Amino acid sequence: KIKKTTKIHPMSMPTKAHWSLEAWRSLPARHQPVYKDKKELERVRSTLEGLPGLVSFAEVSALRSKLEMVYEGKCFYLQGGHCAETFNHCNKESIQPMLDVMNIMKKVISEYTDMPVVTLGRMAGQYAKPRSSPTETVKGVVMDSYKGDIINCNQADAKGRIPDPNRMIQGYFRSAACLNFIRSSTHVNNRVSGDMLQRVRMILGSGAVRSCFHPGMVGFGDDLKFKHLYNEMPKIEEDQSKLAPGENFFISHEGLLLDYEDSLTRCETKSDDDDAAKTWYNASTHMLWIGHRTRGLEDAHVEYFRGLYNPVGVKVGPGTTPEVLVKLINRLNPKNEAGKIVLITRFGAEKVLKDLPSLVQAVKDAGLKVIWTCDPMHGNTYKTNTGFKTRDFNNIVKEIINTVGIHKKIGTRLNGLHLEMCGEDVTECVGGPEKLGETDLSRCFTSACDPRLNFEQSVAVAFAVGNALRAPEAKKTMSLPQVPSVQYGSVPGMTKPVSRLIFGTLFLSKVSQPFKLLDSIWSKGVNAFDTAAIYGQPEGSCEKILGDWIKSRNVNKEQLVLITKGGCSGAESKWAARTSKAQILKDIEGSLGRLGVDTIDIYLLHRDDPSITVPEIVDTMNELIKKKKILSWGVSNWSLDRFKAAVDYAKSKDLVGPVVDSPQASLAKPAGPVWPGTTHMNAEREKYYTTKKDDVSVFAWEALAKGFMTGKWNQNDLDSVEDKPYREKTLIKAYCTGSNFKRRQRAEFLAKEKGVPLHCIALAYLLNLQCEMFVLVGTSKLNHFNSNVGMFDVTLSTKECKWLNEGGELQA
Q: From residue 348, how far is each of 32, 80, 395, 796 by CA, in Å?
């Protein structure tokens, strides 16, 4: 063995009294090749034992020190590289892009987390792979499965698939060549190329990275970190230091092939005569990990690994129990030394929510010092109909976000990321900035085993983990302007004033820059936002966008009035009511989750089901108020009789009754219900609202009659109505009546007289009714919304309002 005296890191070291290098041979060694020529195997082992180590003890010790900092939360851990590194990867064209992309990822993650990043490549030795089956059948021929270039060949050749021990020597020298390339101080490409940095900047600027992220990435792309990286990316080249293995870059691989690992195990000693002073380490790499299939407590791999000074990773996936995991950690790290054990969790985007929490909690309760990292690749693998194995970028990001959330909830932290990736433009994983589909996989699928993230996808994942873990920025609360452009009213039971112009979010999911639109509306003084569980495509997306905006902008919740609606199915169910207790509770939890709030200011039941008794509904809503899920409630599209019954029942039981009714209301009176199951303002309702103005507020929808009161539609449209699409036909029949054409003519006259747009007259008319009226306006265009604010500049007399509605002679 090679012996070299080096200052030993001041940690407890495994000694010969506790462990022997040969002990693993008496235990079950899983996923090992069967070599037919035992003499040749021994010759290869002897050759490897006589070769110099590929890494030094000092470098391994340096990594242990850095991993202590990772454990303490002072550094982040980034590990990535090929799934199955091949001998053909040992060239500049493959190595350099990997180094480049990892440097860029390191910069991104460091920028977001405000921490240095410890970088490890799955390279210079990742040549062995466990397989689920020892053999495979190719064109009727049964042969050994490909187990990595260090064991057999990738080509479907029965002879070439026979395990060959000489490949271990090839693997050693390929690893040495790869390391030599990285270590070299003479080659000109030891820094990220300017062309690649410009490419990254182009990707960021195009919006491709922003657009591909999971919905949990709140406000991504609008934050200062993103903007700083975009501006500074071209300067990374100037700041980049040389890559120095053992200092700022380390190598790693799965320690699967025990004959190879054993042969490259070296002993660091202070004294040849003192066994207690001997420290064993694997000199083939800085860090090794045990795979999910080879980590049995009584198996050879665990026995071998437990005696090494190197940091040891452990893959943790489905089927792992808390009891076994705790025992395994104690077996591998009996001294409970920080920086020794790296747990690499790999469950899948959905399974991680179910399986990981109990494991994290058990390790935490046991007081074990481990580094938690996430491998979001393996658990998200699936096979396409065309036979390609692939992974969905969205699920990869989702598992990262879910894992971060689990650790935050338990009070631990995600310390690192473990990826199968490359720096080339392969097409092996679907999704990401390029929006690759399954049909793209055949274009450039070059992996020897499982699919890897390509250059753009890798950079995007760095942004994902950085954003999920970013150091919280001191956010300024976004408050309403000192001089608003709108007027305010009051809703019974609400202590906050409510803008009489309420922004309706029905079209928000169709807006290209929704945050910009919402920012502008808030800047006008509008503090009331109306949404619904069924708004958007997919349903609920409008709530989600609104909630993300509230969080991203740190909107002043003391001023914000959040209104949403439930109790109604979507279009596929023809807007059927959902007002049983179970349905209401389910809807409210969904809305709270999408909006990201604990309490909704005003919750409206969107439809009514007369088969559900009024007492049951009122009691349910009061239960929600008591639990502080909502502050007040109301209804939309209920009959006036049912609304009155709810008010009366609540009063008799000293409960909170509905304080808002939301019917269609406009200067243009519809010929009947505009849509199935809806209600509209009539004389009876207006009279009731007027007498109860201290108890009931009115939220008017379709206040401009879907554009009729802006000049949309004329007599020709009515004459050809049967030729129109269903939606337009319905609206024309509802609003294009003789009486409404006359109302619009009168409004046009007043608009011309007062020098204001037609629609401002129509909206001002509603505000001048004697009830407590609020106007809902939904639009996807900012200029349209801004023009509606002009209604507050319009003054209408009582006589003008009466004339607009009823006609006759307009008297001064």
A: 27, 18, 8, 62
Longest dimension (CA), the chain: 117
pLDDT in tens, 301-334: 999 999 999 999 999 999 999 999 999 999 999 9
Query: How wide is the angle at C-alpha 441 spanned by C-alphas 438 and 444, nearest 5°?
Result: 165
Dihedral of alpha carbons 497, 499, 500, 505, sign:
negative
Name which of 328, 308, 378 is nearest 18 in CA terms.
308
**541-553 vs 581-595: helix axis angle to the nearest 10?**
40
Contacts of 42 (CB under 8 A, 6+ apart): none
* Gyration radius (Cα) of the chain, Å: 34
Task: Give the per-residue pLDDT at 15.
Answer: 41
Residue found by looking up tokens 């009727």 in the block: 140
Amino acid code (one letter) for 622: N
pLDDT in tens, 13-48: 344 347 899 999 999 999 999 999 999 999 999 999
**CA-to-CA distance for 181 and 185, rounded, in angstroms?**
9
The rounded Cα 137 to chain-centroid distance in angstroms is 40
Nearest to 55 by CA among 189, 175, 201, 165: 175
- Run of H or E residues at 50: helix 38-50
Residues 194 and 202 sit within 8 Å (Cβ to Cβ): no
- Which of 151, 148, 144 minimizes the C-alpha distance to 122? 148
Residue partners of 493: CB distance under 8 A and separation at least 6: 631, 632, 656, 659
Residue 459 has a CB neighbour count (10 Å cut-off) of: 25
User: Is the CB of residue 681 less than 8 Å from the CB of residue 665?
Assistant: yes
C-alpha 769/C-alpha 199 separation (Å) is: 59
Q: Token pair for residue 430?
A: 């679907």
Alpha-carbon distance of 563 to 272, in angstroms, equals 77
Helix or strand holding residue 802 (H, E): helix 798-806
Tens of pLDDT, residue by residue over 721-763, are: 899 898 899 999 999 999 999 999 999 999 999 999 999 999 9
Torsion sign (Cα): 422, 426, 430, 434? positive
**Contact indicator for 2, 53 with CB cutoff of 8 Å:** yes
The H helix count followed by the E strand count for the chain is: 26, 24
Contacts of 480 (CB under 8 A, 6+ apart): 522, 525, 527, 556, 559
Q: Which amino acid type is present at position 435? A: K
pLDDT of residue 13: 39
* CA nearest to 539, candidates 578, 500, 513: 578
What is the rounded CA–CA span in Å between residue 737 and residue 748? Answer: 16
Bridge partners, residue 266, by sequence:
281
Q: Which long-range contacts (CB under 8 A, 24 or more apart) does 711-720 make?
A: 711/744, 711/748, 711/758, 715/741
- Local structure of 51: helix, strand or coil: coil
Give CA–CA dist 122/102, Å, rounded. 11
In angstroms, the CA 599 to CA 607 distance is 21
At residue 82, the 3 state secondary structure works out as coil
Q: Does the global pTM surpass 0.70?
A: no
Residue 145, CA distances (Å) to 48, 142, 254, 446 in order: 25, 9, 18, 18
Question: What residue type is assigned to position 115 of the chain?
Answer: M
Q: Are 571 and 556 in contact (CB under 8 A)?
A: no
> Model confidence at 372, in pLDDT bands (50, 70, 90)?
very high
Question: Three-state SS across 695-738?
Answer: CCEEEEECCCHHHHHHCCCCHHHHHCHHHCCHHHHHHHHHHCCH
